[in-house]
Amino acid sequence: EGEKKGNNVSHFHFALIINMLFLLTCVLTVLFCIYIKLKYFTRHGPIPGQSPQFLFGNILQAGLSPGKYIGDVAREFQTKYGDLFQFWLGPTRILFVCNPDDVQHIFTHRQIYEQGNLERDHHRLLFNDALICNIGSKYKRHASFVLPLFRRGKFLNNYDLIIDCTDKLLSHWRTNTKHVHTNIVEQCQNLSLTIFGFIAFDYDLQILDESNGSKNNQLRNALNEFLKFFVLTIPLPTFLSRFYLKFSPTYRRTLSILNEYLTEIIQQEQSKTSEDITERKRTSLIASLVAALQHDEIEEANKPEEEKKGSSSSVNST
Length: 318
Description:
It is built from 16 helices and 2 strands. By secondary structure, it is mainly α. The longest helix is centred in the first third of the chain and has 39 residues.
């Protein structure tokens, strides 16, 4: 009987420990959820916005889906909350600044307003070492030879080129007088991309060339798919986005198509003489990047960031 009592006491103690561990786990889980809710899914400060839902943020509240453009959602929130508001893409809190004067102030005072973690860390999954992902001295160095190419005066120098591309699109429309164009927005996007290809890379992307339909459709579809991946990965944690992109065959196929075009652009630029590049480096993005390449990357890599000059080939390949 004593041994039986001892076993019963041991079982009781064991059951008590299990129950206490279970209760402790429940309490810790609840506290962890409360912490996550307060830290990542609670509106703080005076900036207006809709209170986010747990795990989903404002995604469900705004009806944001793969078929809905985030710009339309931002316009709805702007109408409701004004030119400055908060929006949660899952756990990611984003501040939208819609007033042009405020935007100009931010971009002209980058010594005060640095890029947020979303651009520095998360966007690097898709854009690697792009300008939008850099901060501090590295951003200033790269911006010094990239941003001047997008000033108003540079585009005015290409005014005739813009008119020629627009006339080409209008000519395509006139040849199909019996056809009602229902995809004007898409074709205007193609026009903008064609103009950018000429101005930035001195390269004809052939998107407006109807005789080359399969190729231009391939590029346009690849860019659309890449944009979808960009929108899809924003609300996901970085490690999940990295895992998804690594094992997505669609992403690898899209990246392969874009790399083919980038390779063609680079090969075309490399075929030019140094005199041609020097002449165009202040009007063409690709020529400016080539001209800004560091002559000795190993030596430059050992310098402090503040003392480095120019760009590296790894940056230009992105």
